[in-house]
Specification:
alpha+beta, Rossmann fold, eleven-stranded mixed sheet, 14 helices, 17% helix
Amino acid sequence: MRRPTHLALLSVGVSGALVLTATPTPAAAEPATTASPGIVVSDGMTQPVFSLADAIEERVYVQTPVDTDHDGRPDRVAIDISRPRETATQGFKVPVIFEHSPYRKGTWGDVPYPSVLVDELPQNGATSRSGLRATDAEAQRALAKANLPGSLDDYYVPRGYAVVLGQSVGTGDSDGCPTSGDQAETLGTKAVIDWLNGRAPGYDASGAPVTAGWTTGAVGMTGASYNGTLPNQVATTGVEGLKTIVPVAAISSWYDYYRANGLVVAPGTYQGEDTDILAQFTAGQARAEGQCADEIAKITAEQDRVTGDYSTFWRDRDYLDARNVEASVFVVHGLNDWNVKTEHFAGWWDELAKRDVPRKIWLHQGGHGGPGSAASVTLPDGRTWTYKQTENRWFDFWLWNVPNGIMDEPTAVLQREDRVYTTYANWPDPAAREVGVHLAATDATNPGTLTSGKAPKGKVEQSFVDEGRTIHPDALVANPDTASPNRLAYRSPTLTQDVRISGRPEMRLRMAIDNKPDANLTAYLVDYGPAGSTAAPKVVTRGWMDPQNRKDASRTQPVKQGKLYDYRWTLEPKDYIFPAGHRIGVVVFSSDQEYTLLPLGGTELRVAPNDSELRLPVVGGRAVLGF
């Protein structure tokens, strides 16, 4: 496992050189020590000893290698810097915490959205109805709004860091056009790290060259949502100087944000949004309708809201390749995030594991965003750390080489359903085993059951009609013991003990579309109370697919009406405990009012339940299920 070589850090001298002892000192026993100027380390964490009021703040325009507005000149990106005054007065060199963002200023708060109400699915050859307009998108979005002075510099500059807040290519005060996650945006962000390490030019507002002689060149990136996605992007370049990233609620593949298994699927609460809408939003109206109109029109054409297929366009916005990653990664994500869905952290985590990238993961029970600074976990050794302290110690370890032992602590921190944080050796839990749970039915109309025993025999088929445009998923999930013409439900017996899943559930469905060339296909995994319970069901996870992409997300294949096919797709990854006394349920329906395009009702779908199954990653395996 790659990590810096550490000795016990005492202080930083006037020249910026580290003063080290030859014998490692346990972080918990490390005394608070200092030099002038120098960082102070206590209990394995840097302490706030530098004056924020005296910090130096400056604006620099970094030249990038890209020309996204095609004006013949390399784009420059604006960055704002806050650093301890001692970096100018006493030659104190500091590492950098860098947050880049497309949301700093000038966003377009009322971008016209395309409608999700369609007469037919577009892959059937029909077109959309007239577009709806978004409500105030800027007010709706849970976006980072940091600006100097802000929370990062308030916290980290006193602890001996510089903080850099950048503005993405094509946004705010930067040149160019936004490109919604492609390699141009990646290189535009990477250029800031190159400037911090003397490899790219930077200029002040008058055009005079500016260098970053005040930094050690060690950089850590962080941010939430899009601001957390940019660190993922840049880490895949292997840029020298990027030592660590802390992506919070971050995207790892834009295809998985706007599509799912060949289907056009919205991020939660943003029905109709797509990469072109995001580009317009971040560009601002004047730029989107002016100098960047052609660039955004190209995005609109290439994103393909008709077939939903994975393509070169999406490959250019896919960071699920960690072969060049040299930075360590601290992944932070909400287990109930339906905007940046959980596949984003899980897919990225899997790739990091393949490459043995030094890593840590913190999963919480919230939605889109971080866990909150005060969230805390007690480690097996009895010490308790808040999330903010954990972040602080992580940056200290990777950027200041503080020997605080954070890499020797449990890899995974996970908040359970009772809101208590616990630790695990890894994620998914190494004890999880894939268990096939068969769908079973004895007649064509009544809700079916789930069994982990032998597959049931018989040729029972069950049908339902898509009315997702008018029926909300909450209504389709409710009343699992009652037949419904618009969905199929299958429930386990009452659980005799808690059952934990950790990983990706997978749906394997034998199904036919009887009267259309295609349909939306949706499955929900649900936690139900015992039979007769009045408690509201809880949706554990969801998944969607386009039957025309049954073999490959990048290839559309026609579906023959009335023919049964075998469909396989994963639901969003999850770590969840079904309590004893509850039942595990799966609900199958077509259009999802919260996420998919919504055609007119009437599509008829038919399932062979006895030839179908749900595969669950059960911690402890089949024996734990008890049915």
